[in-house]
Design a protein that fits this description.
19 helices, 4 strands, mainly alpha, 4-stranded mixed beta sheet
């Protein structure tokens, strides 16, 4: 009964302090919401990493043998480009990756999904000028200079994120043709991007780099192969072999991106919050901020013991027929209930914010209410134990405010409460890390939080015992 009386007094003192309520609930809620909105797509000037509007202007004139490697960019980026009536030769398919490997390729995100590319030409340029979308350049309508200028102005006006321009001599310079064009010449592809869309522009440039490098790799492979053959065999032998060899089919795999040993695949996270960046950040930052401010709540709650000792309130309790364990236990219960209430309110408030962002009621912390409650209890117990530890290592309230704040901020930095994360081995020293990770796992639909709950309980219990022993030694009448 006495322990509950002390706990009730602690709760009454806490929840009648308006300034403390602001620190406990409103501050972490505001910080989490602002950070999640600032680093998400809401209000941003960039576009989602999907359906990026790209214009592909192929001015490549090909070579004398009918090859047009510029058409590779059009075929790779523009859906149904092969049905547009363009009969120019690009590159044959690599048969080594047919069958099972081709089926695996279908599960990956294609460039058609990533971009919304069009094959830009004189007709489109004329339509943009006539529609008033761009100003007419000072060049002859329909000329290469005119079309290129219109395409660049369309990028500047935000109609397209980027323009991929293949120059007229691209195939001629980069193609390896034995005996006739044995030396590869310097060439390149121009990517003209909108600086107001940095992420999507960088992705467009990376796509162009990837295709260009693959074409260059294939031609370099052909050149290296024939150089080795020339070093080993006579010219007559090579010419005889070439007469019966389809070199394009033989070297098709050298031009295929499927032959790369390193690939970048997109993976969907099971149970994630619908792919909404704002909600994902809200979960991670919100849980870390909740743990961070809970540490402050516990710290100032238990440090009131020093104020009571200075005012001789604590000494009167000790002189009464009340065991010291009951006095300190009541204080612990009060801090535990306060922190549990604080964390619960924050989780509910962040859920409301996440639901507003999603446009519907969603549980951003996952559907497993039982495990959510278990993590809440473990986190509250750990934080209460941390508060007792701070009270035990300091001698005065002033020391507690300085030393406690330093340790609390260190816990927050290690635990990732400020948006950046340190090495996991270091982060695991922080209570904030274990609480944040547990809530992140629950939000992602994973229920494997047993280790996190155990660590929180043991961590908090050990800190409480240390603080209890240290403070008990100073609890003199």
């Amino acid at each position: 009964y006495k322990a509950w009386t002390i706990a009730w007094r602690e709760l009454y003192t806490t929840f009648t302090d308006r300034n403390l309520i602001v620190i406990m609930i409103l501050s972490p809620l505001a910080i989490s919401t602002i950070v999640s909105l600032a680093f998400s797509r809401i209000g941003g000037g960039d576009v989602p990493v999907q359906d990026i509007p790209v214009a592909v202007l192929n001015q490549d004139e090909g070579n004398a043998y009918g090859a047009n490697l510029g058409q590779v960019y059009v075929s790779a980026l523009v859906p149904d480009a092969s049905d547009t009536g363009n009969a120019e030769k690009t590159m044959p398919a690599c048969k080594s990756f047919e069958g099972e490997n081709a089926q695996d390729e279908s599960t990956r995100t294609s460039l058609f999904d990533l971009t919304e590319a069009i094959a830009f030409d004189a007709t489109m340029a004329a339509a943009l000028v006539e529609g008033g979308d761009v100003d007419a350049p000072q060049a002859e309508p329909g000329s290469d200079v005119y079309v290129e200028s219109v395409a660049k102005r369309a990028v500047d006006n935000g109609i397209y994120t980027a323009l991929i321009l293949i120059p007229p001599d691209f195939t001629q310079n980069i193609s390896y043709v034995p005996a006739l064009h044995p030396e590869l010449e310097e060439t390149g592809v121009i990517v003209y991007a909108n600086s107001g869309r940095p992420i999507a522009s960088e992705i467009s440039r990376s796509i162009a780099d990837g295709i260009t490098n693959q074409i260059a790799t294939g031609n370099i492979a052909m050149a290296a192969t024939f150089a080795e053959l020339e070093a080993r065999y006579s010219a007559e032998t090579i010419q005889e072999a070439m007469a019966n060899l389809d070199s394009e089919t033989a070297f098709a795999c050298a031009f295929s991106s499927q032959s790369n040993t390193i690939r970048l695949d997109t993976q969907a996270i099971e149970g994630s919050s619908g792919g909404n960046t704002t909600v994902d950040i809200l979960v991670s930052i919100g849980s870390a901020q909740a743990m961070f401010f809970a540490l402050f709540t516990a710290q100032f709650g238990v440090l009131s013991l020093h104020d009571e000792r200075r005012n001789w309130t604590l000494q009167r309790l000790v002189m009464s027929p009340t065991p010291r364990a009951v006095i300190l236990g009541g204080k612990l219960v009060g801090v535990f209930v306060t922190v549990l209430f604080q964390l619960s309110i924050l989780l509910l408030a962040l859920t409301v914010v996440g639901s507003i962002v999603q446009g519907e009621l969603v549980s951003i912390w996952g559907p497993d209410l039982g495990r959510i409650l278990l993590v809440l209890l473990a986190a509250a117990l750990a934080v209460a134990g941390y508060g007792m530890f701070i009270a035990g290592i300091v001698k005065t309230p002033e020391q507690g405010q300085i030393i406690g704040s330093i340790i609390t901020f260190a816990m927050a930095v290690l635990g990732g409460a400020f948006g950046f994360r340190l090495a996991e081995q270091i982060s695991q020293l922080s209570l904030v890390y274990w609480g944040r990770e547990a809530f992140d796992l629950l939000a992602a639909g994973h229920g494997a939080v047993g280790l996190h709950v155990l660590v929180l309980v043991v961590y908090g219990g050990v800190l409480y015992l240390i603080g209890l022993v240290l403070f008990g030694r100073r609890l003199e009448i």
